[in-house]
Design a protein that fits this description.
Largest sheet: 3 strands, mixed
CATH superfamily of the largest domain: Reverse transcriptase/Diguanylate cyclase domain
Strand content: 5-15%
Structural class: alpha/beta
Helix content: 40-55%
Oligomer: single chain
Number of helices: 13
Order of helices and strands: HEEHHEHEEHHEHEHHHHHHEE
Number of strands: 9
Length: about 300
């Protein structure tokens, strides 16, 4: 979905259409982070996970809303129902992103292009929300292609053309290649995904360890991940990657509280509670630390998790 939270707000209040819209807090709020920015707001440099204080400096004339997760969840469920009309194999990767295995539906709909058009038209007709559709041989390529096709676009990457499609794109567009990784790659003359794909596997592994192996495969468009139908999850989590190194712990705490809020809302949506809370922190050198605590009673309430 395209700028999902902001788009839902525009459907609720059409007067907001065309305005720089920032979801995450009111203009007078001193804390909080941006959860979604409309495309009009993004032109000013506002992006998700950005502190509201910074967003207001970049876009002081924007419209700021705290948002309503219940409305977003209801819209997401509508979209899920529509996608299930195309195929029973639907994986909701997040509240606004889904993967659909259309292997068994191509002949029924009359081709891949026909499926993409049906999805876009049906979602807009029933929800008034714009979306982007990408069709490819695997989830990795579809994720990249859908990002490239936004807003309200359609991209079809034929099987066998994965590496060719990725090659000219900036290395930053590759899922998993964070800011620090890209900085290290640029220092060695790697600017595009094609540049990365040309590096021998052993060299990548010397530089990035086992992650280098995965990075090289991704750069060549190789992914074996399957569309998985959601079953009762054993855990629910949310994560984000900062666009730059952070030394301001107040800012880090604001983002952490935002992620906690999103996680607990998802937990409540499923009618579940959690007894154990885990925090995972990954530094710029890829070192990862995990901290956990077990509570005496299970909960899904923010106030009971400190």
């Amino acid at each position: 979905m395209d700028a999902f939270f902001a788009s839902v707000e525009v459907v609720k209040n059409p007067a907001l259409k065309g305005l720089p819209l920032i979801i995450g807090g009111l203009k007078e709020d001193s804390r909080g982070v941006v959860s979604t920015a409309s495309y009009e707001a993004r032109k000013f440099g506002v992006h998700s996970a950005m502190p509201l204080v910074q967003a207001k400096k970049l876009c002081p004339h924007g419209v700021y809303l705290r948002g309503n997760m219940a409305d977003y969840s209801a819209a997401s469920k509508q979209i899920h129902t529509i996608l299930c009309s195309v195929s029973p194999l639907v994986q909701m990767a997040s509240i606004d992103e889904a993967y659909v295995d259309i292997t068994g539906s191509v002949r029924l709909f009359g081709g891949e292009d026909a499926i993409a058009n049906w999805i876009k038209e049906t979602i807009f007709h029933e929800t008034k929300l714009p979306c982007t559709v990408a069709i490819s041989s695997n989830k990795l390529i579809s994720k990249v292609a859908s990002a490239q096709g936004k807003p309200a676009g359609y991209v079809n990457v034929p099987s066998g053309d994965e590496a060719t499609y990725l090659a000219p794109l900036p290395v930053e567009k590759l899922p998993g290649a964070g800011p620090k990784t890209c900085e290290s790659l640029r220092k060695t003359g790697v600017y595009t995904i094609g540049d990365l794909a040309s590096i021998p596997e052993d060299r990548l592994m010397r530089s990035f360890g086992q992650w280098g192996y995965s990075l090289g495969r991704a750069a060549r468009g190789i992914s074996n991940s399957e569309v998985k139908i959601e079953h009762t999850p054993k855990s629910i989590g949310r994560e984000t990657t900062f666009h730059e190194d952070k030394g301001d712990w107040d800012e880090v705490l604001r983002v952490l509280m935002y992620l906690q809020e999103r996680t607990l809302y998802a937990l409540r949506e499923k009618g579940m509670e959690a007894r154990r809370v885990t925090l995972k922190v990954r530094h710029s050198d890829f070192s990862t630390y995990t901290y956990g605590a077990t509570m005496s009673n299970p909960t899904a309430l923010d106030v009971e998790i400190q």
